[in-house]
């Protein structure tokens, strides 16, 4: 099966560029933006040679996994465009729910709340299954002429393989017993993106996105440790605020809103991270 867009996505003017292998779908999308592409372009591949995650970390994507980037061109506020990562997380979780049989995935996150969601969202940019990282999301931007900028919404999913020897648990759909392939997952993702992007509504619907995200949040109400520039802050994960910052209450009762950091749950949160 070849990559293709959902009919809803096509009707809304989205386009598709599919590759057998790429260096980085984010890099390719931003190159298209600098060359004048108007956006609403999905760049997808089943193999990515030089993908990257947050903070410059490598993102391994061997043959059969999904690397997908949506190019968004906007003249709005970059602060609001940054919340597209939450739209991406919701869209991917919705797509996974649609294509993975319900009997395949068990839910369980060490030290965190046990919800009914098979696929949970870990702030700010991960999708978890059975408490392990299944997918990552990376937003990158570039300034364009005329006061506009491009946002590459990168989504990487471990479909057939996941990296080993990581400091956190990781998994793949295949390891979880699911038989969904990258093409089927992308078809559902392109459909789910259209729905959640309409809800987001150029940032005007961020409050609704935030509510939906919290309903899928991993670790809500549980002990967390957040590494921020080499320092570790510990507390209880209470919510994300109206700007989608991570809000915790520390041992002294103080409430902290964190804009960027690496989050650890459960036993990992209790240990030195």
TrEMBL record:
Q: Mind telling me which Gene3D superfamilies this protein's record contains?
A: 2.30.30.100, Bira Bifunctional Protein, Domain 2 (3.30.930.10)
Sequence ranges assigned to domain BPL/LPL catalytic in this UniProt record: 15-201
Q: Does Transit peptide count among this protein's keywords?
A: no
Print the keywords alphabetically.
ATP-binding, Biotin, Ligase, Nucleotide-binding
One of the record's GO cellular component terms: cytoplasm
UniProt EC number = 6.3.4.15
Q: What is this protein called?
A: biotin--[biotin carboxyl-carrier protein] ligase
Q: Which organism is it from?
A: Mesorhizobium intechi
């Amino acid at each position: 099966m070849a990559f293709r867009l959902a009919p809803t996505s096509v009707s809304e003017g989205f386009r598709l560029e599919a590759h057998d292998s790429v260096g980085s779908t984010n890099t390719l999308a931003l190159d298209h933006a600098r060359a004048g592409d108007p956006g609403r372009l999905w760049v997808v591949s089943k193999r990515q040679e030089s993908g990257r995650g947050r903070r410059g970390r490598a993102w391994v994507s061997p043959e059969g996994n999904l690397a997908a980037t949506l190019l968004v061109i906007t003249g709005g506020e970059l602060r609001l465009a940054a919340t597209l990562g939450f739209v991406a997380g919701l869209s991917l979780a919705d797509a996974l729910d649609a294509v993975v049989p319900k009997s395949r995935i068990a839910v369980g996150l060490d030290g965190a709340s046990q919800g009914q969601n098979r696929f949970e969202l870990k702030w700010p940019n991960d999708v978890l299954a059975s408490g392990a990282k299944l997918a990552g999301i990376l937003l990158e931007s570039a300034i364009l002429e005329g006061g506009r900028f491009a946002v590459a919404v990168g989504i990487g999913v471990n479909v057939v393989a996941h990296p080993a020897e990581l400091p956190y648990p990781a998994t793949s759909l295949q390891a979880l017993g699911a038989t969904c392939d990258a093409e089927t997952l992308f078809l559902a993702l392109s459909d789910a993106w259209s729905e959640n992007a309409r809800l987001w509504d150029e940032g005007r619907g961020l409050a609704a996105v935030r509510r939906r995200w919290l309903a899928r949040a991993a670790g809500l109400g549980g002990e967390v440790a957040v590494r921020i520039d080499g320092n570790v802050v510990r507390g209880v994960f209470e919510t994300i605020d109206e700007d989608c910052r991570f809000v915790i209450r520390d041992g002294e009762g103080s409430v902290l809103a964190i804009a960027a950091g690496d989050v650890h749950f459960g036993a990992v949160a209790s240990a030195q991270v």
